[in-house]
Amino acid sequence: MALAVKRPISEVASLPEPSTIVPQIPTHRLYKRIRRNACKSNCTPTSILAYVNLLEEASSNEALQLLLKITDSMHFDESEFPDAIRKLVEHFQREPESAVRVKILSLFADLATETGIDGQQLIDEVIKLLKAEKSAKVISQGLIVLEKIGKSYTPSVAYINQMVFFAKMKLFSPSHNVQRHAILLLGVFVLVSDAEKESLELIGKYTDSPDARVRAQAFRSMLTLGERGVQLPPSLYPRACASLTDDYECVRKEALNMVFELGVRHPEEMIKVQDSEQEVRLIDDAFGKVCSAICDLSMNIRTLAAELLGGMTMVSDEFLHQTLDKKLMSNMRKKRSLHERSAAHFASGEWSSGKKWADDAPKEVISADSVSLMASGACGALVQGLEDEFLEVRTASVNSMCKLALKNPLFAVTSLDFLVDMFNDEIEEVRLRAIYSLTAISRHIILREDQLETMLSSLEDYSVEVREGLHLMLGACKVSTKACLTLVVQKVLDVLLKYPEDRLSTFGCMQRVGQKHPEICMSITPQLLLDHPFFDSAERDVEDPAYVCVLIMLFNAAQHLPAMLSLFPETTIKHYAYLRDTMPNFVPRLAVGGDTKELNLTGSTGSRQFLETLLSNIQRAYSAPQARQALLKAAQDDLDRLAEIDPTFSGTANFTSVFFGAQLQMEQLQLAATGHSIKAPIKECLLQLIKKCLMLQNLFSNLTIDDQLLVKQMCLRASALNLVLIVKDRSQSALGPCQLLLHIASDASSFLQENTLLIADTFTSAILTKLASVGDPKPGRVYREILPIVQTAAPVVIPQINTNIKMCKARIIEPTESSYSAENVIKVTAGLIAAVPFVAELENLQEAQRQDLRLKVKYPDQNVHIIVPRKRDLKKVMTEQGESESQWRLRTKVLLSHGVWTEASTVEITICLSVKPNNELELCKPVKVHFAPKPVKRGL
Q1: Residue 685 to residues 670, 688, 690: CA-CA distances in angstroms?
Q2: Where are the domains of the chain?
Q3: Which of 9, 477, 852, 933 is the most buried (most CB within 10 A)?
Q4: Which of 205, 179, 178, 200 is nearest to 190 (CA)?
Q5: What angle do CA 402, 405, 406 make, to 5 degrees?
Q6: Are 31 and 791 within 8 A, CB to CB?
Q7: How many Cα atoms within 13 Å fall on the side-chain side of residue 306?
Q8: Contact at 8 Å (CB) between 678 and 637?
Q9: How far apart are CA 84 and CA 78, in angstroms?
């Protein structure tokens, strides 16, 4: 790659408007020391020309080793590339060994993908070399290189036609590898207009090639052309159907994809049925062909066929329902009754003459090899997939059945029994997919009592995910009768007694059950509350989880049917007030006892108006430092409270609060940089400022470009202050802070160059200008350059209101401080391990942040252990609409171990993000559990 050129001082001094032109910070300075230490002591060439010149007198083996060294380096001056390519071409022409020529071509592809070299020149050179080449191995590699070069940049139409013409010439090669890569090149680069005229037909002819790899590649290239916008004609359908019985799996796979693609693209096209004059829709016939592939010998083909069925939603109802109609046949053929056989024999007009032996013998028993169990393609296909021996096929069949049921309510009712049967599968993943599929189609079905018995029997599953999935499913489905609802409630409460850790999941299940069945709940209210019509019953324990489940269901039903309130006893009304205060997310507001009005603070009115007023007041006090700082301190408390009471504005309020906190810390440290004394320790303030900058960078998502610029400018100010104060202190090395400042400045400079419409503030422009003018960025010189800018910096610009900001945060569900209180201490022998179940829910965690998730355990002796949870322990939360986009659930075990303690003490457990080494951002408040390692008991 080309080395960045340092900007001379005179060029920076002549800038007319430093606020609008972004100086470039050379990034190679950041790693100068690392590269210097990484240089080897031997005389290894650092120029690509030096490597290439050694090829002239090298043998084939030595040349291959030199080419491998060039590939490993790939950091050269781009000005040397034209001469190096010319010499590599000359060596290619005189090299007798084909392996070396293959490596030279591969090096051309690496140069095109990893450097800024001209790709068109490489295309010309490669095609010229391949025209005189005889080795099929080298030609195949050349075609691969042309594909990589073409994908690394956008070639012109002339060069595309040049590559396509060369590929068409190589289609007549006797080597199957050359044919395969030529067809691949055509599928990727042929023009759409040319493909529809002749290229598509040319590629289609190679589906009859004697080599299976060429046949598979022909289908794959035609599918690639279809993805690029080429109209795939229905005339390809017979050719694809014929390849479904190919001997090779790779061909059957691509042909199956082609059948699916043609069926989806031309659903209403009419085609003739084989050996018949009848016509059917193309989508129906393709559906039958895909269904037939579920009986394929290969597991991969069966899995693919089961997956493709879910995308064929335009199939006719009779074909769709036939997938669930699996007729069992005796002796490989369906038997008819004696009356039916006699009637058929009489209608034929033929009688036994007795001249031939056994000419009247029964004809039901025939050869097993001549009859297929499948009466037609679609007959029982999904049932066959659900009964497959491989879990991949069963899982794909369940997913496809769910997709088809979502589009066809009648099919959803028919497939209900089959999905319920999958609850008894031996693989947990299959059971979960069946549960989630039934949850997704719940709006189309009503459960019967016999189906509920099978579902509820799975509630005692050992897997907590299966139990929670069933709770979600039961809350989403509707039941038909009073007996069904009673059965559900009784079974859920029995399982809760066995698994008390499912308390929250059970509460949510009963909440949704009450909301969906208000009339049935009203009919069983006296039965559930044990309310006698004549005698007063004893007051139930409001802390009993089973009783709380019943109340949650009835209160949510009463929200939709207020007449139920008259059936509640007086004690139940009192318990409502208690539960409404303790768990408002499960208990709705009812018209019980006094005022029922509720204050609704919506994000569109009250919260936004409050934020606008707050920011305008701070803006008015912008020129008065003392008033501005007082307003910023008061605004932090108000914003934290706003984040608690209005979830829709939680991310915006938290972002603004953290920004104001960083601004306050920065203004205090700026006073320290000018020589004034401050109350708080400087090191402590620096740590808090760095932590708030890390929070702004890592905990908030959906930031606009202006918000990102504000964050980068804030981080640049913080790093400049950090360097200035550390150099002033002289108690530690300033090399690390200097490198950090250069890195942040380079990032900000690149961001401003990418977004030319943004304008940096005066501080950022001045810092970038100074850093660009520094020739040798040593800490002392950088400090002297930026010190006056830091001391005279103006306050930070106030962020604008962005209601789309989301903050990553967590909520620890288990353990709770009450579950491991002083009366319930975790006791373990000192030195051994205690496993504490840990469950937490995370909101707005980005996919890229999953690997940074950590558990932090802090012991009373201030020892801190950082634990990396397993990837499989973090999964997305399932809802009735499917997987949640922003909510995750972490379910794992925290291992605690320590030496002997004299008494039980609290251990803090929290969840955090590891954004930098030794820098963890806590996502929630830590939970405290009592832990007591006991001494080892010595035997006699």
Answers
A1: 11, 5, 9
A2: 48-263, 604-792, 808-934
A3: 477
A4: 200
A5: 85
A6: no
A7: 30
A8: no
A9: 10
pLDDT band at 289 (very low <50, low <70, confident <90, very high): very high
What pLDDT sits at residue 63?
A: 84
Residue 273 has φ and ψ, to the nearest 5°, of -75, 145
Query: What dihedral angle (degrees, nearest 10) is formed by the CA atoms of 255, 257, 261, 263?
Result: 70
Assign residue 115 a region: left if phi > 0, alpha if psi is -120 to 50, beta otherwise?
A: beta
235 close to 201: Cβ distance less than 8 angstroms: no
Cα radius of gyration (the chain): 37
Residue keyed to tokens 């109609």: 325
| Distance, C-alpha 629 to centroid of its chain | 42
| Distance from C-alpha of 548 to C-alpha of 536, rounded to nearest angstrom | 20
Strands 826-829 and 927-934, bridge-based pairing: parallel
Count Cα atoms within 13 angstroms, Cβ side, for 142: 28
Six token digits for residue 664: 């306050």
Contact status, residue 726 vs residue 699, Cβ threshold 8 Å: no
SS3 state of residue 805 = coil
* pLDDT greater at residue 614 or residue 77: 614
pLDDT class of 220 with cuts at 50, 70, 90? very high
Preceding omega of 815 cis (within 30 degrees of 0): yes
Cα separation, 464 vs 294, in Å, equals: 32
DSSP character at residue 537: P
Distance CA 247, CA 242 (A): 11
Close Cβ partners of 899 (under 8 Å, ≥ 6 residues apart): 830, 831, 933
Spatial distance between the Cα atoms of 520 and 524, rounded to a whole number of angstroms? 7
For residues 23 and 9, what is the distance between their CA atoms, to the nearest angstrom?
12
Residue 510: the pLDDT is 94
Which H or E element spans position 875? strand 874-879
The model's confidence at residue 755, banded by pLDDT at 50, 70 and 90, is confident
Residue 681's φ and ψ, nearest 5 degrees, are -65, 140
Alpha-carbon gap, residue 503 to 675, rounded angstroms: 59
Q: Are 130 and 138 in contact (CB under 8 A)?
A: yes
φ/ψ of 511, rounded to 5, equals -60, -45
Question: Does residue 372 register a pLDDT over 60?
Answer: no
**Helix/strand/coil for 906:** strand
> Once rounded to an integer, what is the mean pLDDT over residues 279-307?
92
817 and 481 in contact (C-beta within 8 Å)? no
| 194 Cβ contact list (under 8 Å, min separation 6) | 164
Range scoring the smallest mean pLDDT among 56-60, 326-330, 752-756, 807-811: 326-330
Query: Do residues 544 and 502 make contact, with C-beta atoms less than 8 angstroms apart?
Result: no
DSSP letter at 330?
A: B
Residues in Cβ contact with 780 at an 8 Å cutoff, skipping those fewer than 6 apart: 727, 734
- Helical spans, DSSP H, in 32-175: 32-38, 48-53, 60-73, 81-94, 98-114, 119-131, 136-152, 157-170
Q: Which residues pair with 894 in a beta bridge?
A: 836
**Average pLDDT score over residue span 831-854:** 90
At 853, give phi and psi (nearest 5°).
-75, 135
Q: Which of the listed ranges 245-259, 616-630, 876-890 does the model predict with the highest average pLDDT?
A: 245-259
Please check whether residue 39 is in contact with residue 793, taking contact to mean a CB–CB distance below 8 angstroms.
no
What's the whole-number average pLDDT of the chain? 82
Q: What is the CATH architecture assignment of 48-263?
A: Alpha Horseshoe (1.25)
Residues sharing a CB contact under 8 Å with residue 907, sequence separation 6 or more, in sequence order: 857, 858, 859, 860, 896, 928, 929, 930, 931
Q: Is the CATH number 3.30.300.30 carried by domain 808-934?
A: no
48-263 and 808-934 share one fold = no
User: CA separation (Å) from 718 to 509, 656, 790, 928?
Assistant: 49, 17, 10, 34
Q: In this structure, what token pair is assigned to residue 580?
A: 């409404």
